[in-house]
Amino acid sequence: MNSPDSSHAAGPQGFWRKYVFSLDHKVIGRQYLDLSLVAVTTGMILSWLMRLHLGWPALSIPGLGAIAPEATGGIITPEYYLSLMTMHGTIMVFFVLTTAPFAGLGNFILPIQIGAEDMAFPRFNMMSFWVTFVAFIVLVSAFFVPEGPPLSGWTAYAPLSAVGKDAGPGQGWGQTLWVISIGIFCIAQLLGSLNFIATTLDLRTKGMSLARMPFSTWAWFITSIIGLIAFSVLLPACVLLLLDRVAGTSFFIPAGLVISDRLQPHAGGSPLLWQHLFWFFGHPEVYIAILPGFGIVSHILPAVTRKPLLGPRVLIACMIAIAFLSYTVWGHHMFMSGMNPFSATVFSVPTLIITIPAAITTLLWIGTLYGARMRYNTAALFCLGFISVFVSGGISGFFLAQPAIDSYLHGTYFVVGHFHFVMGVASMFGIFAGVYFWFPKMFGRMMNETLGKWHFILTFIGVYCIFMPMHWLGLAGNVRRYSAFTDDYMKGSIPLHRFITVAALFTGAAQLIFFYNLFRSRFRGEIAPANPWQATSLEWTTSSPPPHDNFGGHHPVVYHGPNEYGVAGKDGDYIMQNSPEPEPVAAAS
Amino acid sequence: MKSPASPAQTGVWVGIAAITMSFAAYSSALVVRQGASPDWVHFTLPPILFFNTLVVVASSVTLFMARARTGTTAARPGSGAAVIDAPHLTWLYVTIFLGFLFLAGQIMAWRNLAGQGLTLASSPSSSFFYLLTAMHGLHLLGGLTGILYVVYRVRRSNAVRAVRAYNAASLYWHFMTVLWLYLFAMLATRI
Prior knowledge:
Chain A is mostly helical. Chain A has helices at residues 15-20, 25-55, 64-67, 78-113, 122-140, 173-202, 215-246, 271-305, 312-325, 341-353, 355-369, 378-400, 403-409, 413-443, 449-475, 488-491, 494-524, and strands at 258-259, 262-263. Chain A is built from 17 helices and two strands.
């Protein structure tokens, strides 16, 4: 209803203002996506190094010794393995799973979907991206400091993360850079979330009531609220940890702690305090990664099934319920931490309850598929893949939610398989679906469908080959975080680990198809029409790519919800949100 | 003084929610840390804190007076959006002065504490004292920047944007006062 801070009738022309320090949400969205592309490539290479070492512990990886002095002769030491694991997790969780589906796709699409010219605070928006960029540079610089990156995992448990370089290689400068990077990242995310919330509340165009918002916008809106609360707790946690490291305070370091034969000069801190603060952020973070995927799948499914999404209001209610419940379950990461066993029960109950809205959502998607005349394009396939891996990963969550079973499985590969499926791969499939679906809008060109389908099939088979066996390894008692399995008991797991390694290399290689498709289509793809998918929401009413102010100087007026599919509209079996035609009376089918 | 949905106002409300969560995290950390082990040192808070509290409350009052004396009229009849027609800056300058006086007073409190041999690392209680006052001070500095921006906006134009900036900055400033009252009460009872 209001125009944002500055007038956007004509875009800036200079190179710096147009492409680098741009205030345009579309440019910033693409910047986020480009950053996460760099991050995901880095994170994937790190996982390959870990997988190679797990399969062939004595293998000397050519060239690694030259890049990383910690891995003498290219052979990964146990400590360097932990460094790789830490950096892989941190980069993937923060700079891929948070950055791409929420900050990247959300930035580009959300303002257009609600009929706004830009975000509410374009300058904050630019700042959020560049602050995120700085956070990434700070994190990656940990590779280049003496003793290399930290080894305390993406969760940075205290006191290991708090005591400094006595705790091992990478726990000096590397860990300090890690804390600073994550603190900076929190600031960027807080600015970003604030912007998303204000934009959604205040800049909706005429007729765009909350009930008429597309599901993806709903998901980004809810995600931004979760992010706002979660990151404003992680930031203080990082400040406390940094003070313990550099200022000699004792928030997390207990009294009488001896590390590397040295009594640490700290007293009385509580390591559990770090875990509580971290997981109060950490569990909602899982939903920050996955909820945009919920929104993307719910947005794309009606367009590819040509049916309205089943139970649209129930879906939104479920997403809100998940957001609320996500703040009550953090303790399920801490069943084995030594906290009061009664607390474990208290955290177990909401953990089981949160599966209810998640299961309802899944049933709504499957119900929407029932009787559909499906258009099997790449975006549709990734939506189906999303549902599949989300269910596979979700079901293993039932087991882990129970303290008694978790006490056996917690330290094993079962957990690795679980969270990679449900958080990692499902979110990635949501990102892929979104990219294939919105690419024409972003770049004005279509992606190649044949390559897209090959990318999907190979990735889908690949991720099951990687993560399904991890569940079996975990059930067999194969511990996680170990760099090699050389004792007699664990030796039996090595053939399966080798299989997983080969699958990981293969799946990674399949992503080259995606990269090729992405770059080729950007310049050589077929020219995209305004609405290639016959979809209803506002982003498809404007040109591909949209003009600088999104709608060419006018404000769209909305008459319908986003779910008008399978009806007799004037253009076909759907009604655009801005079409003034009357509400449909009978279904086309 | 009401204007229709203003992103600046919404932004400040959302920011308040985030800052509240941050200080809730610090507060629960304080409670947990105090109970974690017997190394919590109770000390007398520097008396200047009472004066600082008066100053920050007074700054809210002067901001309120500045706001009340600044006349506004509807930009377009019936639109609900307002513009400033009688800028009244004196009380605004007093508010800015009081803001800086508060910050100076907080630094005096730190010096007082350091004079007693209590540093950031010497005890968890002093750690939290320095940390919470520093964090509040940083946020208050942001509020001062906001009010300086309002002065610039009001002097430059009387437009709708000046009113929005004024409303948003006032809301934030009053929140800073309330936040300090909470922190002061917590520090006084816990330390």
